[in-house]
Amino acid sequence: MLRTRAFSTSARVLSYIGKQPILVPESVKLQISPTEVVVEGPLGRVQMSKPTFVNIASSQDTMSSGSVLSVSVNDATNKTQRAMWGTMRGLINNHVTGVTDGHVALLTLVGTGYRAGVEKDAHTGAPIVSVRCGFSHPINFVIPAGIEVTTPIPTRILIKGADKQQVKLFGASIRLKRPPEPYKGKGIYLDDETITRKATKVK
């Protein structure tokens, strides 16, 4: 009987991603140290930690006035380094996009009386998102630094920021207060989220 051996392709895929160059516009500046990367552009500044085995090199982009980044690791045969290779490349690329174009999360409120608005905290003056989603009182969320929040209409919350993870986590924290429920479809939906509706229980 011929034996076959299964290989995990995840690390291989990540190393392939890691090899892809990153195009950096002229408006974006990078500071690279052995343990940290700082990406700064028109829409903000993002910092991230960097393993010492990850190397980042910059060269002039011959097609524009920007630059090209290449990411590598000390030992591409090491499974941990190979996996981190693609992860680091993806994070840096996200940050470059974030400080130039920004990242967005959209929350949709579905339910009778559900609505939201951007206000200032009565005690601290800090900007907050005040959300009414079926509780006896509004739920307030302090807007983190680096995040911009608007409510184009009362049932939509638009979150923008340079740090993709920060934007999505803030959106997820609001959604968590009233996740969509499958019977009436009420709740707070994040981005293109959909749910499978269930038939109403018959008593």
Automatic annotation (TrEMBL):
One of its GO terms (cellular component) is mitochondrial large ribosomal subunit. Residues 24-102, 132-188 form the Large ribosomal subunit protein uL6 alpha-beta domain. It comes from the Eukaryota. PROSITE patterns: RIBOSOMAL_L6_1. One of its GO terms (molecular function) is rRNA binding. GO terms for biological process: translation. The keyword NAD does not apply. Keywords: Ribonucleoprotein, Ribosomal protein. The keyword Ribonucleoprotein applies. Gene3D superfamilies: Ribosomal protein L6, alpha-beta domain (3.90.930.12). Belongs to the universal ribosomal protein uL6 family. PANTHER family: 60S/50S RIBOSOMAL PROTEIN L6/L9, LARGE RIBOSOMAL SUBUNIT PROTEIN UL6M. This is Ribosomal protein L6, alpha-beta domain-containing protein.
